[in-house]
Amino acid sequence: MKRCLLLVLLTMLCNQVTANALPDQNSKSLSIGWNMWYPYQYFDKDKGVVGLDVDITKAVAKAAGYDIQFSKIPWKRHLKLLKTGGIDLSAGSSFTKERANYVLYSKPYRKEVAALFVQTGRYQEINQQIIDLTDFTKNQYKIAIEEGYFYGEKFESLTRHPAVKKRLYKTLSLETNIEKLMNRQIDVIVADPVTVKAFEKKYNLQGQLARLSTPVYESEIYFMLSKNSQSKETLKKINLAIVELEKSGVLNCLINQWGGLALD
């Protein structure tokens, strides 16, 4: 009962401090894409576009003096639009040198991890075989990832290995990967533990997925601003807003509310 009350109070506090993060400053509009990425970005039939990154984006935009216009866009197309200036902003982004050619990166605002997951009943078998990511070159395990996402330089290098490349499956959603894993069409999936935990709860899969010991990737997460549509002045305002939300406690409040990973 006390835990439930605490969660209710925390939710009310987050909503209040987000709404009052900073006053609007002659708001201008920024366009941002979103795609299904539970619990960071998703559509609720009663509330519209919601999620951890959605709440943080709204709070940062309000603090920086911007309105936000959300559009549902597949991730690969989102990146192309950032290149051309067809869209202004992206949330939930890891840093890559290639993207830095066409976007401005904000200060980091949260942390993200990628890990390996298997069916619980196969944990002992596979965990003993995969001590390091390079061990995938020595066995026949099939791996599934979500297309367009970055899982770190070491994993990217692994995907180019001939022995791994022919056993690597790229799909459009974690839902598809979990379904294939449960049907034993694949052996291992690469995913964010926060997302996996949310899916376990949503689809009543608690106890059916196990995380392997081998680490994949840990990264700070940023906003990306299109160099073709936004200036360093916009970036400065976004960064100042992130700092203000960190100092006020709003940022950690939102991250904790959604079960995300705060920066150390």
Automatic annotation (TrEMBL):
Compartments (UniProt record): Cell envelope
Entry similarity comment: Belongs to the bacterial solute-binding protein 3 family.
Example of a GO cellular component annotation carried by this entry: cell envelope
Chain ranges of the Solute-binding protein family 3/N-terminal domain: 29-262
Chief location of this protein within or outside the cell: other
Listed InterPro entries: SBP_3_CS, Solute-binding_3/MltF_N
Organism for this UniProt entry: Thalassotalea marina
Signal peptide (from-to): 1-19
This protein's UniProt keywords: Signal
PANTHER family linked: AMINO ACID ABC TRANSPORTER SUBSTRATE-BINDING PAAT FAMILY PROTEIN (PTHR35936:SF6), MEMBRANE-BOUND LYTIC MUREIN TRANSGLYCOSYLASE F (PTHR35936)
Protein name from the UniProt record: Amino acid ABC transporter substrate-binding protein
Presence of the UniProt keyword Cytoplasm in the record: no
